[in-house]
């Protein structure tokens, strides 16, 4: 897992290897009640017109397109027209904001009046929903849904210059021609496809292609810098055996013949692209950009191993061992992007895990960590090996020739016991005897299973000792902790080193010397980093409790400490105890718990010094029994105090890893226990810094707050505002049936924004759209019941603050650019429905912001030697924001580096506004986001992504623990156990 939060957070996902603190409080009393579930219930405090069970949600508000606000302040994104009549019953957005086809859009506009009959509204709702159901394909282009235009540029902060790894691309304004390609017989390998096209170009370039060199994407398209001499044509290509790099094991032919059909498809308009880059056209000419991207990727795709948008090779910086039969290769990422300065080639250095090209027998020894492979494998090891090797290509060298095979499995028996029928089908021969008689090879490692190639009916048995894993095969499964550590150690570079590495890579690629890029397509790639105007935003002033010696603190370089400070709202813990599952001495465990209690008290918490039950030690094998016993004993002791329960269980984890998920599942989904787990190695040190960090987590888990921002938050402090964070985590590679986990958190303590309630939900495997933001359930007795995570959190906010939100800010993590439109349409519709299910006409303005951490833009100080421009790690300063030059030509986005680096090169977070009814200025949204990054409750540092998105990620991973420990591997929606209500009421995921 990568590290977030000043570069230290783990995360097992998204490139995946890709941070946050508490907010403002304005004086006066605060409602501190807790929000309940709310599913199917009327929401206290919302208007009496709330639809109850059996009624429909707001009329016509179930439209599947974002709707502009009908709240006190009608705010429509500036790229969206606002001429459509709007009523409470039909809050339909202007046509420009809709992804509905024009005929449907006009039909909607014509019916959006106060006189629409209820039957028409129902029919309209059904029609739109049918067009935009979850399974529907996303809009074909961004023409269908325009995102907000940039409202101007930010001006706050100290101006500075940074360098970005974006390289200007200059193209001649001439049309590109797109041709469809069909290769018969069809092959799945892009490498073979490229070999076929390369042979075709070399053979027919002058005679049939008009002297042109096409750029090929490896699949179905080629692009040319001008027309070919034909509309369509067919070619026959014969590929020599030595060119057929992935030839199947059964092939004995000296060459393979392919038929290639080329047919004109379209002409990509370069003038449209130039107009878009000058902001004279609003829709992105994606096809043209894709064509140019194919051109720039064509040559490296032939030279290197392609993984997504990255290229890898031992020639690009060497390789290194990761352990367990894996190694890393260095390489680079490349992507062509439209930006304000024009077309930009984003280039970054990268590294990826590959299988070591070694004998399979040596791989077995490394992977299973055994020195002696003379003993037969047990069933568990054999199954692990089979799962890992299946699908890999190996090269068998029998002393006479080398042949390539694809592994379909491994034998159940050792190779020394295997026989196969000869051609007469009566006589059987052993595999060992066959290799001895045919190739004069005496097999040595006959206790190992054989590799199975061919098909199940007629398998080919191959000795592991004679098979070598073919080079260049990437390892797609999750790396273990040792491998992750080795990869990070090998690839972690300080900013100046990384900048130099990127520089070397760009010069090594020599785009200007590439015949296809420069001569054929007249593309020029500058070799200098882009120099970009940036600003460093000031940190917010943080407020602690007035009784502390330092009630205010101004962070320095993204960090501060708790010395002389007390939590702004210290929690109360009367009922607590501690259990030790490690080998730690019981006396030391007692001392640790007492010192932790003293630390909590010194920081402002009200903590009973005496545990409810005596502190005990137990064996890790008894985890479930001990937790249940503790819960039962505490319940019995509090039987005469209705509503009272164990408030906190401090748990010293077992010395061996692997129990955390089980403990959290039992405590949070079965017993309703709020727990704080501690690592035994850290606990045994009795270190004050560690105790202080743990006390911060404990305080928020029992309902307290650590610190808040002193001052006003833009567009938050003036009116009741709820801030959401949402994320979806997917199963690790190789898990084909486990559900994805969606998580949504929301702030509960306006006018401050520090406490977040979190909800989780299992959903369809690898579905990125959050399915349970809003839903309805039909109950036989109660009728239609409204539910969903957004609805429940809105009700909880109302109960906690005694106000209903006048504004919604929704930070959505984990969405790629290709999914923007689809996610926005579905999730904005769900937010609208959740609001109107609570109260007719309730449509608070929404700002929907995508938070992107998995990108390859890096920002470097303009002068690495100037310490005024860098933090201690040599990275750009916390608060550095960029919204010019390398950002989108017309839309509202920015890069924000909100944290101080610890090691390596900091990655700024990219924020892209997809919908904005609150009409944020650039300064307002950038300042709000940066200030929120100082409100993360788990540390006294600013973090790299906005906290609600961070918390949603933490909550989703917590739920993944529940499922992994529970053994749930199916895709059933009910596989995720429910979190107990008292646990949901606090920030249990921290």
Automatic annotation (TrEMBL):
<dbReference type="InterPro" id="IPR032472">
    <property type="entry name" value="ArgoL2"/>
</dbReference>
<dbReference type="Pfam" id="PF02171">
    <property type="entry name" value="Piwi"/>
</dbReference>
<dbReference type="InterPro" id="IPR032473">
    <property type="entry name" value="Argonaute_Mid_dom"/>
</dbReference>
<dbReference type="InterPro" id="IPR003165">
    <property type="entry name" value="Piwi"/>
</dbReference>
<dbReference type="InterPro" id="IPR036397">
    <property type="entry name" value="RNaseH_sf"/>
</dbReference>
<protein>
    <submittedName>
        <fullName>Argonaute family protein</fullName>
    </submittedName>
</protein>
<keyword id="KW-0678">Repressor</keyword>
<feature type="compositionally biased region" description="Low complexity">
    <location>
        <begin position="56"/>
        <end position="70"/>
    </location>
</feature>
<feature type="region of interest" description="Disordered">
    <location>
        <begin position="86"/>
        <end position="105"/>
    </location>
</feature>
<dbReference type="Pfam" id="PF08699">
    <property type="entry name" value="ArgoL1"/>
</dbReference>
<dbReference type="GO" id="GO:0003723">
    <property type="term" value="F:RNA binding"/>
</dbReference>
<dbReference type="InterPro" id="IPR014811">
    <property type="entry name" value="ArgoL1"/>
</dbReference>
<feature type="compositionally biased region" description="Gly residues">
    <location>
        <begin position="26"/>
        <end position="43"/>
    </location>
</feature>
<dbReference type="Pfam" id="PF16486">
    <property type="entry name" value="ArgoN"/>
</dbReference>
<keyword id="KW-0810">Translation regulation</keyword>
<dbReference type="Pfam" id="PF02170">
    <property type="entry name" value="PAZ"/>
</dbReference>
<dbReference type="GO" id="GO:0031047">
    <property type="term" value="P:regulatory ncRNA-mediated gene silencing"/>
</dbReference>
<keyword id="KW-0687">Ribonucleoprotein</keyword>
<dbReference type="InterPro" id="IPR003100">
    <property type="entry name" value="PAZ_dom"/>
</dbReference>
<keyword id="KW-0943">RNA-mediated gene silencing</keyword>
<dbReference type="InterPro" id="IPR012337">
    <property type="entry name" value="RNaseH-like_sf"/>
</dbReference>
<feature type="domain" description="Piwi">
    <location>
        <begin position="648"/>
        <end position="964"/>
    </location>
</feature>
<dbReference type="GO" id="GO:0051607">
    <property type="term" value="P:defense response to virus"/>
</dbReference>
<dbReference type="InterPro" id="IPR036085">
    <property type="entry name" value="PAZ_dom_sf"/>
</dbReference>
<dbReference type="Pfam" id="PF16488">
    <property type="entry name" value="ArgoL2"/>
</dbReference>
<dbReference type="Pfam" id="PF16487">
    <property type="entry name" value="ArgoMid"/>
</dbReference>
<dbReference type="InterPro" id="IPR032474">
    <property type="entry name" value="Argonaute_N"/>
</dbReference>
<dbReference type="GO" id="GO:0006417">
    <property type="term" value="P:regulation of translation"/>
</dbReference>
<dbReference type="GO" id="GO:1990904">
    <property type="term" value="C:ribonucleoprotein complex"/>
</dbReference>
<dbReference type="InterPro" id="IPR045246">
    <property type="entry name" value="Piwi_ago-like"/>
</dbReference>
<feature type="domain" description="PAZ">
    <location>
        <begin position="359"/>
        <end position="471"/>
    </location>
</feature>
<comment type="similarity">
    <text>Belongs to the argonaute family. Ago subfamily.</text>
</comment>
<feature type="region of interest" description="Disordered">
    <location>
        <begin position="1"/>
        <end position="78"/>
    </location>
</feature>
């Amino acid at each position: 897992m990568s590290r977030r939060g000043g570069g230290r957070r783990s995360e097992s996902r998204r490139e995946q290897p890709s941070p946050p603190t508490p907010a403002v409080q304005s004086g006066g009393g605060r409602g501190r009640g807790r929000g309940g579930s709310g599913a199917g219930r009327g929401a206290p405090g919302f208007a009496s017109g709330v639809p109850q069970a059996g009624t429909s949600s707001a009329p016509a508000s179930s439209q599947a397109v974002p709707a502009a606000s009908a709240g006190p302040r009608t705010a429509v994104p500036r790229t969206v027209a606002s001429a459509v009549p709007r009523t409470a019953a039909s809050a339909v957005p202007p046509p420009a904001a809709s992804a509905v086809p024009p005929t449907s859009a006009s039909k909607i506009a014509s019916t959006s009046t106060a006189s629409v009959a209820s039957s028409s509204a129902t029919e309209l709702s059904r029609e739109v929903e049918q067009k935009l159901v979850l399974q529907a394909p996303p809009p074909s282009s961004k023409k269908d849904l325009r995102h907000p235009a940039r409202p101007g540029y930010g001006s706050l902060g100290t101006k500075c210059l940074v360098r970005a790894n974006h390289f200007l691309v200059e193209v001649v304004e001439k049309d590109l021609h797109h041709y469809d390609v069909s290769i018969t017989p069809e092959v799945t390998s892009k490498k073979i496809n490229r070999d076929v096209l390369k042979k075709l170009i070399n053979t027919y370039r002058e005679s049939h292609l008009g002297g042109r060199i096409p750029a090929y994407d490896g699949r179905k398209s080629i692009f040319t810098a001008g027309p070919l001499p034909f509309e369509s044509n067919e070619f026959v290509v014969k590929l020599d055996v030595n060119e057929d790099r992935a030839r199947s094991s059964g092939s004995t032919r000296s060459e393979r013949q392919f038929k290639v059909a080329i047919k004109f498809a379209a002409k990509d308009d370069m003038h449209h692209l130039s107009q878009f880059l000058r902001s004279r056209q609003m829709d992105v000419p994606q096809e043209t950009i894709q064509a140019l991207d194919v051109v720039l990727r064509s040559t490296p795709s032939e030279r290197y191993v392609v993984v997504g948008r990255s290229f890898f090779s031992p020639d690009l910086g060497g390789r290194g061992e990761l352990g367990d039969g894996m190694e890393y290769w260095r390489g680079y990422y490349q992507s062509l992007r439209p930006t304000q300065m024009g077309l930009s080639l984003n280039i970054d250095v990268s590294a990826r895990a590959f299988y070591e090209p070694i004998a399979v027998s040596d791989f077995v020894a490394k992977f299973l960590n055994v020195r002696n492979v003379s003993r037969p494998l047990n069933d568990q090891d054999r199954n692990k090996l089979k799962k890992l090797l299946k699908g890999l290509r190996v090269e068998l060298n029998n002393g006479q020739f080398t042949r390539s095979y694809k592994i379909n499995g491994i034998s159940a028996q050792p190779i020394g016991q295997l026989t196969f029928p000869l051609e007469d089908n009566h006589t059987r021969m052993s595999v060992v005897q066959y290799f001895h008689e045919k190739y004069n090879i005496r097999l040595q490692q006959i206790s190992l299973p054989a590799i199975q190639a061919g098909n199940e009916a007629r398998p080919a048995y191959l000795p592991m000792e004679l098979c070598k894993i073919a080079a260049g095969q990437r390892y797609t499964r999750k790396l273990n902790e040792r491998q992750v550590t080795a990869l990070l150690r090998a690839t972690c570079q300080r900013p100046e080193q990384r900048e130099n590495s990127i520089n070397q890579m760009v010069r090594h690629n020599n785009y200007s010397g590439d015949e296809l890029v420069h001569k054929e397509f007249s593309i020029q790639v500058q070799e200098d980093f882009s120099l970009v105007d940036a600003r460093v935003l000031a940190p917010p002033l943080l407020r602690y409790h007035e009784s502390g010696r330092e009630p205010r603190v101004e962070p320095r370089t993204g960090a501060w400490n708790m010395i002389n400070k007390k939590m702004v709202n210290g929690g109360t813990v009367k009922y607590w105890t501690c259990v030790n599952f490690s080998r730690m001495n019981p006396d030391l465990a007692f001392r640790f718990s007492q010192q932790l209690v003293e630390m909590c008290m010194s920081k402002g918490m009200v903590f009973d010094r005496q545990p409810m039950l005596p502190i005990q030690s137990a064996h890790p094998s008894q985890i479930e029994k001990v937790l249940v016993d503790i819960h039962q004993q505490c319940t019995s002791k509090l039987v005469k105090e209705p509503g009272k329960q164990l408030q906190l269980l401090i748990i010293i984890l077992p010395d061996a890893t692997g129990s955390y998920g089980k403990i959290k599942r039992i405590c949070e989904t079965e017993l309703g226990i709020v727990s704080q787990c501690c690592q035994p190695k850290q606990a045994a040190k009795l270190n004050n810094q560690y105790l202080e960090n743990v006390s911060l987590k404990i305080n928020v888990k029992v309902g307290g707050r650590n610190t808040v921002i002193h001052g006003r938050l833009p567009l938050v402090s003036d009116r009741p505002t709820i801030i959401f964070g949402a994320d979806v985590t997917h199963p690790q590679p190789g898990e084909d049936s486990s559900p994805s986990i969606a998580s949504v958190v929301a702030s509960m303590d306006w006018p401050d924004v520090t406490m977040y309630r979190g909800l989780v939900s299992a959903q369809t495997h690898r579905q990125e759209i959050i399915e349970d933001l809003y839903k309805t359930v039909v109950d036989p007795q109660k009728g239609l019941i409204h539910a969903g995570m957004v609805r429940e959190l809105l009700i909880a906010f109302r109960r906690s603050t005694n106000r209903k939100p006048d504004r919604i800010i929704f930070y959505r993590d984990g969405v790629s650019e290709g999914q923007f439109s689809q996610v926005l349409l579905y999730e904005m519709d769900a937010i609208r429905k959740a609001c109107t299910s609570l109260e007719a006409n309730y449509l608070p303005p929404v700002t929907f912001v995508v938070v992107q951490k998995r990108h390859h833009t890096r920002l470097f100080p303009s002068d690495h030697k100037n310490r005024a421009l860098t933090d201690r790690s040599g990275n750009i300063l916390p608060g550095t924001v960029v919204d010019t030059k390398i950002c989108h030509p017309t839309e509202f986005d920015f890069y924000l580096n909100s944290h101080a680096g610890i090691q390596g090169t900091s990655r700024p977070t990219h924020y892209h506004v997809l919908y904005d009814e609150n009409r944020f200025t650039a300064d307002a949204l950038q300042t709000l986001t940066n200030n929120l990054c100082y409100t993360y409750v788990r540390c006294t540092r600013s973090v790299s992504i906005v906290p609600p998105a961070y918390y949603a990620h933490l909550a989703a991973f917590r739920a993944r623990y529940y499922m992994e420990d529970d053994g749930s591997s199916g895709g059933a929606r009910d596989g995720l156990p429910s979190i107990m209500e008292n646990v949901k009421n606090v920030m249990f995921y921290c």
